[in-house]
Amino acid sequence: MFYTLNQLTSEQYSQAGKKFSRLAVLRQTGFRVPMGYVVPATIFSMVTEATSELMAVIASSAIDDGAKREALAADIRRIILTMPLPEMVIKNLGTTLTALRSKGYYSVAVRSSPPLEGLAGSSFAGCYESILNITNATDLGQALRRCWASAFQPSVLDYCCHRDLVLADIQSAVLIQGMIPAEVAGVLFTADPVSGDDCTMIIKAVLGLGESLVQSEVDPENYRYRWYTDEVTRDPEAVLLSVDEIRALGEIALTIQEHFGTPQNIEWAYLDGEFHILQAQSIAAIHYAVEEEWTNAYLKDGGGASSITTPLMWSLYEMVLEETMPRYLAATGMSPKRPPRRWTASFFGYPYCAQGWGETNSGVRRT
């Protein structure tokens, strides 16, 4: 009835949701993801269809009245939080708890997924419920209800209204996962979401469980890892992660990014010298702050940049563009008022030169 992350197949992804399917892929690929069981959306549908009061509310309620959406959401959540669970579900919850304990997990976390696939890349307060440190079957059943209830927040109903969806379209999978009693936890962005720098990772770390960071209860320590040049910078008071640990975490993150093919937002936990991956999803939005633009169009015209440049040829480009050309521009009054930090650079073996110089001293705009 429940799917394990070890055995979740592509045919079951639609019932597990993208968030948990990605975790299954990572665990099956060999990443250190805590063991877990997915309660598929079919269970949610089965339980709600057996609850006559809830079905009556869902069938009769319109969601196009904004003034009533909060009251409707509260009514639905009240019903879900008090509805009985079928004996089959209760039995499976107990079996799941026993199985996780047998693997050394003394408590479990219960996590919700986006109730609709379109919400996966957005931030909707309350839609992503996580209940931690569950140790008994009774609390596990209530945590399951809480995750289901979180699928009917007013923001979700608003989303449905603006996309002509009905309440019956809302489904929710839940993950029951072994808890990692983390010494340190946090989040990592494989690209800087503010500047768009895809060679610099942004790492935030807190002492203990990462939930305090997610809930903005504490200020995290901040680290930047420029993996392309192996440079680490940090807050002056940051002590939770060593340089070697940052490098190890960065290597894991790069491998995850390579696996999925897009910059990632990764939740991680650190315990006994090992990093555990709790979540990985594509960064929802990246903003690019461009200081310098680079082109190799001019170099390609001469054929020099049509293939990987040898060290000798690169040294010639660098000498001409970094030394000879600036002297020529200065002598002719064409130096830009704000010259680029460098006139040339090598990316992946190919030479590039800066463009978009801005206004020159002679008033000519160079582009």
Q: What percentage of residues falls in helices of 4 or more residues?
A: 25-40%
Structural class: alpha+beta
| Gap between N and C termini | 62 Å
Give Rg in angstroms.
26 Å
List the total number of helices.
12
Low-confidence stretches: 122-126, 357-367
- Please write the string of helix (H) and strand (E) elements: EHHEHHHHEEHHEEEHEEHEEEHHEEEE
The rough form would be described as elongated
Number of E strands? 16
Q: Give the biggest sheet.
A: 6 strands, antiparallel
For the biggest β-sheet, the strand order reads 9-8-7-6-10-11
* Mean pLDDT metric: 84
Strand content: 15-25%
Can you walk me through this structure?
By secondary structure, this protein is of the alpha+beta class. The protein is built from twelve helices and 16 strands. The strands form four sheets. Strands 9-8-7-6-10-11 form a six-stranded antiparallel beta sheet. A five-stranded antiparallel beta sheet has the order 1-2-5-3-4. Strand 13 and strand 14 form a beta hairpin. Helix 4 runs antiparallel to helix 5 and helix 5 packs antiparallel against helix 7. The radius of gyration is 26 Å and the shape is elongated. The chain starts with a strand and ends with a strand. The C terminus is likely disordered.
